[in-house]
């Protein structure tokens, strides 16, 4: 089965195609009988016209009686062990999210101004740009790669607008901080520690296997989905004079999980029958598109080193490549550390420690500089093995039974004022499954001589990470606004000194304010309907309640345990 030009699944011997049904077995609990010949069955199963199953006795003392059999229950574990139906459902979704689908939609799109025309918009993750930039024979800065992708997408593919997703991430990070403080103040149903992440891989894992963990997962949308909101609800309505369904929004992301995330029902606008993100393609698929159109991303394009367009809050143009220090997977923890430090208004120190020397599990502790009291604890945690440990530790601290194992061997418990930045891929998003393979020059120098796929090695992930940061230094959590910049070694104690901000920060601040101001004003029938209910965006407590509800509707989501949804079995073909 082929998902895309870059991913193929093979050896699926339990794969259920969309035309087949999952067969529920019946339960037979009869004990062995002694009055029959060896090899004879004690009973036979009969099915009546309604499809009910009966167990009919064969032995002399059974008098030919029959017993209706119960249909056996299929547990979530049975489903996960099979995975055929889940795989087929996902494959159908992913087929609709491919680079061929993008080409097909663009080819059928009526001309601008003609009825039915949709404005094509492309947004690309910074990790995807880093992968494209690092894989070139002569690596280039991500800013230059963004210009080349923009030129290709506009001139060759016909996209009207091309953005990176970092401004959307900026809004997501602010909403995350807001959510953290709500939890800290005891918001109902929103406990601490908070598991913060932009990773649908991790969220799907929690939904399928650890439903009891869902309240701990931050409900703020990922940058991909915030970008969908900005494109369809903000830019389209307020600056392009378009409805959400008149936009075709394609996102370029570092992994396939993002396709499934875009397909979630939470991100479907029923009123306009459209998704926030219409199609997600991977970094590899974008490169494939370029190659199929004879475009070489290693060649310069005119103006690729020009100064960026200044940020303006009056004629909004999304700023390019806002890259806060922290991690190349979104800087979720770093942004919270800064938010906590700003809120505490006292000198703090930051300690960072890799747990057992594991660079994918690093704990960070903020302490009061004079008393030494712990103010905040957090950790960056990448890869499923480490995630499993985090889930168990959080479960233990919260009194939730999530299994036993390695967690019991990790020292220390979780304090309530804690946050984890959790990502499914080892090394984080720069090492996502949709990223480019290591070029030949890396395969020669890689330490993995045992046949491990080189595109997935730590050496190559580090290369992409370097490209993301634009140099060899990787600023760790707590850097940037700290007196001891860039220090993310196993253990450090820089003193936290917050910067006063730059002109660029002020402009970003003004643009964020513009987004919220615009989004609080009604623009279409859906919002006008809300105003018509008596809770408009005018002054008064009702309007403030609506603004808060609207803000949550725009920038947060909900997670559900898979048991209540029966993935795959509930899909209608
Ligand atoms: Fe995708 Fe991996 Fe990043 Fe998760 S960590 S969002 S699975 S690339």
From TrEMBL:
The keyword Zinc does not apply. Keywords: 4Fe-4S, Iron, Iron-sulfur, Metal-binding. Residues 481-502 have a biased composition (Polar residues). Residues 438-447 have a biased composition (Basic and acidic residues). GO terms for molecular function: 4 iron, 4 sulfur cluster binding; metal ion binding. Residues 431-453, 468-504, 520-550 are annotated as: Disordered. Residues 121-433 form the Iron hydrogenase large subunit C-terminal domain. This is Cytosolic Fe-S cluster assembly factor NAR1. It comes from Lactarius akahatsu.
